[in-house]
Amino acid sequence: MTTPSSVVVTGLGIASPNGLGTKDYWAATRGGKSGIGRLTRFDPSRYPARLAGEVPGFTAEDHLPSRLIPQTDRMTRIALAAADWALADAGVRPEELDAFDMGVVTASASGGFEFGQNELRKLWSQGSKFVSAYQSFAWFYAVNSGQISIRNGMKGPSGVVVGDQAGGLDAVAQARRQIRKGTRLVVSGGIDASLCPWGWVAQLASGRLSTSEEPSRAYLPFDPDARGHVPGEGGAILILEDAEAATERGARHYGEIAGYGSTFDPKPGSGRPPGLRKAIELALEDASSDPEGIDVVFADGAADPGLDQAEAEAITAVFGERRVPVSVPKTMTGRLYSGGAPLDVAAALLALRDGLIPAAVNVRPSPGHPLDLVVDRPRPAALRTALVLARGHGGFNSAVVLRAPAEPRPAH
Fold first, then answer.
1. 288: buried, middle or exposed (CB in 10 Å: 19+, 13-18, 0-12)?
2. Cα separation of 367 and 327, whole Å?
3. In what helix (H) or strand (E) does residue 403 lie, and over which residues does it extend?
4. Strand, helix or coil at 185?
5. Dihedral sign, CA of 274, 280, 282, 283?
6. Strand partners, 411
7. HSE value, Cβ hemisphere, 13 Å, CA-based, for 334
8. Which of the 8 DSSP states describes residue 161?
């Protein structure tokens, strides 16, 4: 049997509520800086939930040509800029590679909500002739993959995965699959941005948003006061490459996508257990690792009492009680939907590089969850492997194992 090729991450492009760009994000995450606050992109006073994680200081005109502005939603503008940053970080100039040897596989949870809202308003108030022709694709789930591929001349395998938070890991796994089938490089990850009234109402329909008015007590996974999550925007774009191809061009990498597993929860009331534990076990098997080989877990952290209990039970069933450190850096950003898990992958790779586990902020661990939850301050540790978990609304479960390079990529 042929051994599958190794797939590594050579570039990161981050747009997060607590930092724009990898350097600012990681400095903020190491320092426990939260990006959660009252919504400013619209007046939330009429809605029961009013806090969010907004990407600060992003001006699309500073990063993109003017012709792209009227045809793109905010999520796509951020994704295009993040893809540029990730390619530059990887030292990749797309015009120097075979167009059919580069692909794009991203995740999306909602599509371009704000663009769609504005065009629907024109339809209802002014009539159909005032609706932009760009509405035909600017709202669509696959638009980020399409725009990134067009902008960079990438004509290889491309696609989109829609699976809420779990979709971000599924996209990375699909990119890994395409590279193992022969594509040299795939741009992956996810960016979502639906902080507009239409998007907000859709998110409220889940019944899982925190209605706290206090940013420091609003999003508290594994805390006795867990009361739902705070939504956010942004995420991370990653450059995945065949390890041998990356080495041939002299690239250093952050780490390997070493294992992946995914499952779907059974129908409620079936009496069967949730699928997260099985997803973890599949990822470990795919990585040829046993539980003792994992140095840190980046948890999904739903901040819903029942979902937190299910995740804690899955982690302890595989690793034992308090046997592995658990990190939830998304307590500083909110849940970013399709962008959340790729951002956790980026955080985990940076943690492996620096030997530092970021803390969950503002969380007082519940004694009912026997987890070694890293809180208050980051924890230094010798790290070689990390497990990233993500779940999606409706029952998606995904897990990815990351492995540090033999020679760590230097910090910028």
1. exposed
2. 16
3. strand 396-403
4. strand
5. positive
6. none
7. 33
8. E
Other C-beta atoms closer than 10 Å to the C-beta of 382 total 7
Please state the pTM of the whole predicted model: 0.97
Reading the block at residue 250, the tokens are 């002299």
CB of 343 closer than 8 Å to CB of 235: yes
Radius of gyration (Cα) for the chain, nearest Å?
Answer: 20
CA 255 to chain centre: 16
> DSSP letters along 221-248, please?
TTSTT---B-BB-EEEEEEEEEHHHHHH
Written as tens digits, the pLDDT of the chain (412 aa) is: 567 789 999 999 999 999 999 999 999 999 999 999 999 999 999 999 999 999 999 999 999 999 999 999 999 999 999 999 999 999 999 999 999 999 999 999 989 999 999 999 999 999 999 999 999 999 999 999 999 999 999 999 999 999 899 999 999 999 999 999 999 999 999 999 999 999 999 999 999 999 999 999 999 999 999 999 999 999 999 999 999 999 999 999 999 999 999 999 999 889 899 999 999 999 999 999 999 999 999 999 999 999 999 999 999 999 999 999 999 999 999 999 999 999 999 999 999 999 999 999 999 999 999 999 999 999 999 999 999 999 998 899 999 999 999 876 666 5
CA 42, 226, 27: angle at the middle one, nearest 5?
65
Q: Give the pair of three-digit tokens for residue 92.
A: 């990749």
Alpha carbons 114 and 213: distance in angstroms, whole number: 24
Strands, E assignment, 87-184: 102-107, 158-161
Task: Strands of 40-183 (E only): list them.
Answer: 51-53, 102-107, 158-161
At which residue do the structure tokens 């607590």 appear? 18
Cα–Cα dist 277/317, whole Å? 7
**Phi, psi of 115, deg, nearest 5:** -60, -45
Q: Tell me how many helices (H) and strands (E) the chain has.
A: 11, 16
Question: How far is the C-alpha of 153 from the C-alpha of 122, rounded, in Å?
Answer: 33
Residues in the chain: 412
Residue carrying the six token digits 């960079």: 152
